[in-house]
Each structure stands twice: as structure tokens, then as C-alpha cells.
């Protein structure tokens, strides 16, 4: 049987399900850089470079393995501007017996693909994505009948399922499932932070950089200093770099933020795992190995593995459990536009400036910057979920709807009413000051809540608490916060709320 096999830009794995039993002598591989995928959001330029270059390298590797590959390079005048157009044109010429594709990672494209069998007039075999531990059905079965969907419970099952960090008698290594108590240190200049892993762009990447600079000028971010891996071999080297230089301190400084350090001890592996260059289980096994070899402490190793087999899998499960309605949720009734400085970094708030500036330069910010700085600010300032979700989808090299949406709409914005989080991650400037050195060089004073120079996060935090009192005051995890708010003198509450009102009306001037 002759098959046409479509490989998407985030499916660059040689052992992906669509390539199972593929026959180099008979089958035809299809890959295409198309306008529709490159512009459903204004992807950061570095993301476009990473994906187009990685796709081109992957196609070349398939050819080296003997496959016939039809590959469309991006040009605004290409006849096929969508994956559907491209596949339809190719099928006309090749007339295969069937089309094979691995299920895609996004509801938008998924619903288009559902119609292909009828529209394209041939059998379409959509295969389960074998790069994840849990299928959509398995997650559905796990979620069924549960009052609460909690990552921690799901994570224990994934530990048992994979055997990662489990003793021979079925107990969690170290006697506990979670060592986050040890993972909340501020970084004060020591230990020294490693340089991030870096690859010199080759000729293919150089060509793609020129293409992106020519045709995607209106997309955010800089293409300068592009140093991401674009092949599986280099992504493996990025993993080795993380294991050797950053993993031992990953746990301890996981929540830290620092003005001079964009990457700290994070792995910077999500861009590769999400497009298929690295297998998440290979990553987790290599990390666990460092624990057994006494080369990394348990708090680092467990914390890291939890992010992948716990959070990453769980978030994907939530996405497919709840889409498409999920994307429309707005539990807090938010209605403001995203301030313009999210696209420029030009704001006097030092924490926001650093988080956005790093994002635009690198296409990367680490989790706590995303959650507790840019995310927290959007939560406190009543930003419409769709606006902040689109920002996160656009500006990060690792952003795909399946992982970005539940993190932003659910974890950050509480727009799903707390489907998987027991309380919103709202925080004042005090938290940012505790975990970073941003506040000492800020034009605002973190100790103040009122007055022109007061840290905006402070009044905005109390404004948020006050305006959502009905929704949260019965929440046992927030009772202390409400008790604190209620015991403030009326005059002080009034001054804070007035400052909050002013800030909300003048977000673009901060
Ligand atoms: P590390 O800190 O080294 O963590 C290791 C790995 O754990 C990551 O590579 C990632 O695969 C996984 N991981 C950690 N936290 C999460 C999480 N909450 N959800 C899913 N996986 C997780 N991650 C993405 O991959 N794509 C996104 O589009 C994305 N959007 C986010 C939006 C918001 C608002 C927030 C708060 C988080 C988002 N995350 C996203 C999760 C997390 O911030 C990134 O995975 C992480 O910063 C990637 O950098 P790293 O590889 O250095 O991660
Ligand atoms: C993200 C992306 C981009 C920017 N461009 C392409 C492309 O030109 N061709 C392609 O096949 N895939 C691309 N992708 C990845 C897809 O958008 C991704 O497969 C879907 O969002 C489903 O996860
Ligand atoms: Fe951010 Fe406030 Fe600290 Fe300035 S003072 S860096 S705005 S938390």
C-alpha cells in the first residue's frame, strides 16, 4: 500500500506514530511551511526560525534515511497557504491509498483534520500521539467522577506508571512524593549561573533567519543571537548541558528571578520537547539517572520530573478534556485590553520590564516570570483572557495552544473558575521582592501601597481581593487574606482602592 504521511512542524520525531511501519520504497512524506500555520498568531520571530529550520533539517534527515520527501518552503506566493491546500494538491499528483498523520496538538487544526477524509476523498488514518504518557481517553477516565482535578494526584499515578523515582517496593524515592519545601530560595549571586546552551546557526538556519526577517517583520521579538538547537543531535547536547551544569541547582532556585540572569538554572528544553526534537521520557530518565549516580540532589531531580510527567501531561489532559468551550471561559468577567508595554517592555515597573524584555529578546522567560510577574499583573488588572492568552501564544518559542492555554487561562487567569487550582495565584509586590532583586532598582517603592511612587502590584492586589470578595471570601485557602483586608482601617482601604482604580484606568502609563 502506498501512503502519504504528513508531518507537522511540531512532530519532528523519527519514532512518531505517523512514521510507524513507514516504507521508504513506497511511501511519500509531506511537509510544508505554510502561511496559515505561521500566522494564526503573531509567533515570535525566533519561534518561526526554530520551527522552519528544524523542519528543514528533519526533512533532510528523512531523505538520508531513504524516504521521498515533498517539502514546501515558505514563500508568500506559494499556491498552498494552508496545510489542507498543500495536502490536497499533493494528493492529486501522488494519488496514494491513504493519508497518515499523527493527531495534532491544537483544537483549531484538529477540527479541520476531522473533515479531511470526506473533503480529500481518501481514507485518513489519524494516529494517537505516542510522545505523551497519557492518551486523551486515559485522561478522561482518570478525571471521570473526581470532584477536583489536582495535578498532584495525577502525578503520583504517573510516577507509578513510569516507575520514575520509585523504589523496588513501590514507594517514592526519599519517602516523599514532593520536595518543594526545599525549592523556594532566592538567588543572591551564587552559585554561578551557567551560560545557556548555544549552537551557531548553520547555512540552513541563516537562510531561514533571512526569510523570517523579510516576510515576518510585523511579528514580535528579535531574531538576533539565535542560538537554539534545530536538530535532535543538538537538542541532545542541550540536554547534556543542562544535566552537567544546571540540574544540581534547578530545584533550589526554581522560583528565583534575577535582573542579570535570563535563564538561571532552568533547562530551556521545552522548545525541543514540544516540537519533537527531544523525547520527554528520555529527558526524565536521564535526569533520574543523575540522582542514582549522586550527581544531583533529590529535590532537583524530583522537582524537574514532576514538571514533565506531572504538569506537562496534566495540562495537556485538561486541554483535550475541556476544549473547545474552554477557550471562551472568563469566570472573573475580565474586560480590559492588554497594556501596550507587553509588546515593548517599556514600563517603569522593573519586574515587568525585565520579564517582557527577556521574552522579546529570547522568546523565553522562565516559569516564575510567566506566572508571578506578567501573568500575575494580567490577573490583577482585569485583562480579557483571550488577549493575554494570545500574547503568551505569540511570544514564546515553546508556545502551542495545548500547553499555553490551560497555563494561561486556567493557572494564571483563574478564568476557568479554579478547575485545577484551589485559589488564584494573585500576589502583591512583596512576593516579587522576596524572590528577586528587581525591586531595588525600580522607580516604584515595594514597601508602599498608596502614593504616586507606590508599587502598583500592592494596590492592585488588594483591589483584586476586594472586587472579587463574593467569589473568594468563602475559600478556606483565602480566609487569612480576607481577614487581613477586613481588619484594615476604612481610611486605608479607601486610599488603596482609589489608588487601584487610578492604576486600572491608567495601565498604559505605568
Ligand atoms: P524548566 O523550568 O526547566 O522545566 C522543565 C520542563 O517542565 C519544561 O521544559 C516543561 O516541559 C515542563 N513544565 C514546567 N512547568 C510546566 C507547566 N506549567 N506546563 C507544562 N509544562 C511544564 N510551557 C510550554 O512548554 N509552552 C507554553 O506555551 C507555556 N506557556 C505558559 C504560560 C504561562 C502563563 C505559564 C505560567 C507557564 C507556561 N508554560 C508553558 C510552562 C512553563 O513556564 C514552561 O514550560 C517553562 O518555562 C519552559 O522553560 P524550561 O524548559 O526552561 O523549563
Ligand atoms: C507553529 C507552526 C508554524 C509556525 N509553522 C508551521 C508550518 O509552517 N507548518 C507546519 O506543519 N506546522 C507549523 N507549525 C506547527 C503547527 O502550528 C502545529 O502542528 C499545530 O499548531 C498543532 O499543534
Ligand atoms: Fe515590580 Fe513593584 Fe518590585 Fe517595582 S517595586 S519591581 S513594580 S514588584
Keywords:
Rossmann fold, mainly alpha, binds flavin-adenine dinucleotide, five-stranded parallel β-sheet, 3 domains, 5 strands, binds ligand DLZ, DNA Cyclobutane Dipyrimidine Photolyase, subunit A, domain 3, binds iron/sulfur cluster, 510 residues, Serine Threonine Protein Phosphatase 5, Tetratricopeptide repeat, single chain
Report what the structure shows.
Strands 3-2-1-4-5 form a 5-stranded parallel β-sheet, sandwiched between helices. The protein is 48% helix and 5% strand. With 510 residues, it is mostly helical. The longest helix is centred in the middle third of the chain and has 25 residues, at 298-322. It has 3 domains: 3-127, HUPs (Rossmann fold); 136-199 and 231-322, Serine Threonine Protein Phosphatase 5, Tetratricopeptide repeat (Alpha Horseshoe); 340-509, DNA Cyclobutane Dipyrimidine Photolyase, subunit A, domain 3 (Orthogonal Bundle). It starts with a strand and ends in a 5-residue tail after the last helix. It is built from 21 helices and 5 strands. The mean pLDDT is 97. It binds flavin-adenine dinucleotide (FAD), ligand DLZ and iron/sulfur cluster. Residues 349-351, 429, 432-433, 438-439, 442, 444, 446, 455-457 line the site of iron/sulfur cluster.
Amino acid at each position: 500500500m502506498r501512503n502519504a504521511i504528513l508531518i507537522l512542524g511540531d512532530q519532528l520525531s523519527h519514532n512518531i506514530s505517523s512514521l510507524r511501519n513507514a516504507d521508504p520504497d513506497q511511501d511519500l512524506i509531506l511537509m510544508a511551511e505554510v502561511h496559515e500555520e505561521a500566522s494564526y498568531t503573531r509567533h515570535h520571530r525566533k519561534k518561526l526560525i526554530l520551527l522552519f529550520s528544524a523542519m528543514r533539517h528533519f526533512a533532510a534527515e528523512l531523505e538520508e534515511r531513504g524516504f521521498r520527501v515533498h517539502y514546501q518552503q515558505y514563500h508568500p506566493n506559494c499556491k498552498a497557504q494552508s496545510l489542507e491546500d498543500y495536502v490536497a494538491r499533493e494528493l492529486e499528483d501522488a494519488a496514494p491509498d491513504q493519508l497518515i498523520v499523527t493527531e495534532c496538538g491544537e483544537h483549531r487544526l484538529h477540527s479541520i483534520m476531522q473533515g479531511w477524509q470526506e473533503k480529500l476523498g481518501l481514507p485518513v488514518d489519524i494516529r494517537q500521539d505516542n510522545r505523551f504518557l497519557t492518551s486523551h481517553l486515559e485522561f478522561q477516565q482518570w478525571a471521570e467522577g473526581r470532584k477536583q482535578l489536582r495535578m498532584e494526584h495525577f502525578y503520583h499515578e504517573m510516577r507509578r506508571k513510569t516507575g520514575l523515582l520509585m523504589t523496588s517496593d513501590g514507594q517514592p524515592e526519599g519517602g516523599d512524593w514532593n520536595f518543594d519545601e526545599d525549592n523556594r530560595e532566592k538567588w543572591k549571586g551564587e552559585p554561578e549561573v551557567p551560560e545557556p546552551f548555544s549552537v551557531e546557526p548553520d547555512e540552513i538556519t541563516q537562510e531561514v533567519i533571512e526569510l523570517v526577517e523579510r516576510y515576518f517583520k510585523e511579528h514580535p521579538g528579535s531574531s538576533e543571537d539565535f542560538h537554539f538547537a534545530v536538530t535532535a543531535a543538538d537538542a541532545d547536547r542541550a540536554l547534556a548541558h543542562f544535566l552537567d551544569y544546571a540540574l544540581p541547582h534547578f530545584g533550589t532556585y526554581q522560583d528565583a528571578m534575577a535582573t542579570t540572569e535570563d535563564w538561571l538554572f532552568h533547562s530551556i528544553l521545552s522548545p525541543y520537547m514540544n516540537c519533537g526534537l527531544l523525547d520527554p521520557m528520555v529527558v526524565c530518565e536521564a535526569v533520574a539517572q543523575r540522582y542514582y549516580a549522586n550527581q544531583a540532589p533529590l529535590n532537583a531531580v524530583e522537582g524537574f520530573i514532576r514538571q514533565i510527567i506531572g504538569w506537562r501531561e496534566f495540562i495537556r489532559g485538561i486541554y483535550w478534556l475541556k476544549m473547545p468551550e474552554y477557550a471562551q471561559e472568563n469566570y472573573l468577567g475580565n474586560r480590559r485590553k492588554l497594556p501596550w508595554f507587553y509588546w515593548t517592555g517599556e514600563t517603569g515597573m522593573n519586574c515587568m520590564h525585565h520579564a517582557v524584555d527577556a521574552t522579546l529578546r529570547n522568546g523565553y522567560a522562565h516559569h516564575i516570570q510567566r506566572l508571578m510577574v506578567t501573568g500575575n499583573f494580567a490577573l490583577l488588572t482585569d485583562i480579557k483572557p483571550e488577549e493575554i492568552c494570545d500574547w503568551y501564544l505569540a511570544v514564546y518559542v515553546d508556545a502551542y495552544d495545548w500547553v499555553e492555554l490551560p497555563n494561561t487561562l486556567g493557572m494564571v487567569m483563574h478564568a476557568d473558575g479554579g478547575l485545577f487550582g484551589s485559589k488564584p495565584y494573585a500576589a502583591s509586590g512583596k512576593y516579587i521582592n522576596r524572590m528577586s532583586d528587581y525591586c531595588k532598582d525600580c522607580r516604584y517603592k515595594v514597601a508602599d501601597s498608596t502614593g504616586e511612587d507606590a508599587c502598583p502590584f500592592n494596590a492592585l492586589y488588594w483591589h483584586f481581593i476586594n472586587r472579587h470578595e463574593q467569589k473568594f471570601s468563602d475559600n478556606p485557602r483565602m480566609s487569612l487574606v480576607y481577614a487581613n483586608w477586613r481588619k484594615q482601617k476604612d481610611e486605608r482601604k479607601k486610599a488603596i482602592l482609589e489608588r487601584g482604580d487610578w492604576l486600572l484606568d491608567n495601565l498604559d502609563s505605568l
